[in-house]
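Purpose: get a first structural picture of the assembly so the mutagenesis plan has something to point at.
Setup: two entries, given in the order below. No constraints added.
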Amino acid sequence: MKETFRISSKTVSCYFDEAFSQLKNLFSDVKIIYVTDENVFRQHADKFQSEKVIVIKAGETFKQQPTVDNIVERLIALKADRQTLLVGVGGGVVTDITGYAASIYMRGVRFGFVPTTILAMVDAAIGGKNGVDVGIYKNLVGCIRQPEFLLYDYTFLQTLPKEEWINGFAEIIKHAAIKDADLFAALQQNRIEDYTSSGKALDELIQQNVKIKMTVVAEDEFEKCDRKLLNFGHTLGHAIENSYLLPHGSAISVGMVAAAVLSQQVNNLPAEDADALQQLLQQYHLPVYQNVEADKIWQVLLMDKKKLGDDIQFILLDQIGKAKVMSLSTAALKLFFDDYFKSGKAVTA
Amino acid sequence: MKETFRISSKTVSCYFDEAFSQLKNLFSDVKIIYVTDENVFRQHADKFQSEKVIVIKAGETFKQQPTVDNIVERLIALKADRQTLLVGVGGGVVTDITGYAASIYMRGVRFGFVPTTILAMVDAAIGGKNGVDVGIYKNLVGCIRQPEFLLYDYTFLQTLPKEEWINGFAEIIKHAAIKDADLFAALQQNRIEDYTSSGKALDELIQQNVKIKMTVVAEDEFEKCDRKLLNFGHTLGHAIENSYLLPHGSAISVGMVAAAVLSQQVNNLPAEDADALQQLLQQYHLPVYQNVEADKIWQVLLMDKKKLGDDIQFILLDQIGKAKVMSLSTAALKLFFDDYFKSGKAVTA
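Result (structure tokens, whole complex):
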């Protein structure tokens, strides 16, 4: 099923439940070069036969500039030019890096994604944000440029480890928490196995989430207002993710619970909503607390891209399904986090 | 004198004959971080007192990714955030790298330029193309993003070596050759000393050239049609520049003469126009021929960003003041260059 979304002057086409092998037919007029990681390449070698493929090392640790440098060298060796289409096949690390390499190679060549994880399918591959980490600083360099297509081939999920399914549900629960109380209620009725075992339930869930994110991005591509809400759980999440080598989903799950507690304190979020969020995350096997040294993550937090002078633009919940941006002083935030991490557990736990 | 140009949805302000020290007053609401090179910093140390400055090594050799990586590290150390304005103070290498670093740091922060060479004033700092070389491949990675201002402080030119003046006149003569027969005639009447010795003549010449380039860029920011003409002399020029460590002006001067000879052969350029171009370049002390190994530069030429399948989009002259894009097959071009470089001299010399 094909669905198109309009983002500024660009059209992003989504091919849901489509075979990877169809790509060559959909884009028969261009030279395709694939970028994937070692895991995807090894587990799906049959899909890449006789294709030009650039294989990068797997994992967030390699989402750094040297990997981009290597891709550029390989593109030169493969004689990629402005008629080349780069296709990133993998999780968020692969799609972020591929989008970035395509945006800067020859000042921009065409690109699209085949997300192979739940997280990339519902979040990372959508919205055009790309780039790499710089040391422990998440996504510190990059740009915003939309892929021209996303192709969803669910056969890639057959090899997805259980923890990667869990990882993806953090962003799904985030979408529900900030934008869709009905989706939140539906998720409460189900368990993760209801989606892993049913192609139909999964396809519906993914389409729902793609639509939530695409709609937000279409209204605010450059994150001047509503798109900021998608950062719910990410301010603290990003600060602890690389410092403690957490999966992205775990990091933002911890971040969302902390943001919900803060929402109770400064934004009158009802305690039952904060509880419901924490319980839903636990229901989908996500961690809700992480022991950290407050001082250590504080230095990372101060480099957050959402920092505005002495304030940080923090995302808080009004209620389940509704969020807002609030400017909080770094001083007030520091007090909150010092106290929060001193308690040694999520407050509502 | 302030003049503004509209490029897509952005406004680029040009402050002509304005003091560098005025920058702080013009942008008093932001944190400014300067990027410059060792030469400019040493020769104009007084201008940078008590400013935050990132100093990079001077020269095209350092227009490579590691320099960008260093700038990013320094920006982190200086706590640059989205309220920071990056100002590149230098020649084309500094402005290209600063624009690139500003475009990718935190997915884009504000930036402007203070060009300190003739070449940067009339060409490199204008038009939003930024980026770095990859090995010998010129500007292979980068993006297009407009600076929000250009400030012209001619006191920087007091320390400009003679060869850098000559370097800049290659782009001035290029503008005349492709767009402005009157400017071409005026240049024929003068010598380089007429501009180096008179502030008024120089200010006028620079404003004229800024206007030529800004007008072309405003009509075609992403180089779909008319902006391609600005690449006159650059296809061969770029191929020999890094291979033979030539100054950019020398490389494109050689490239323009070759393109004029080719224009005679395939585009009926009158011989007297080709002669006039060559003579004007020599009048401004620019080289018109370079001994090269045709095979060596051919490999670089095949990576040209203007390559379109088996053709290269080549810029040819119709007459002085008028140029066009012509698709030439790589095979035909190879024959031409093999022959041209076998002759051992510019054909019209």
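Chain A has a mean pLDDT of 94.
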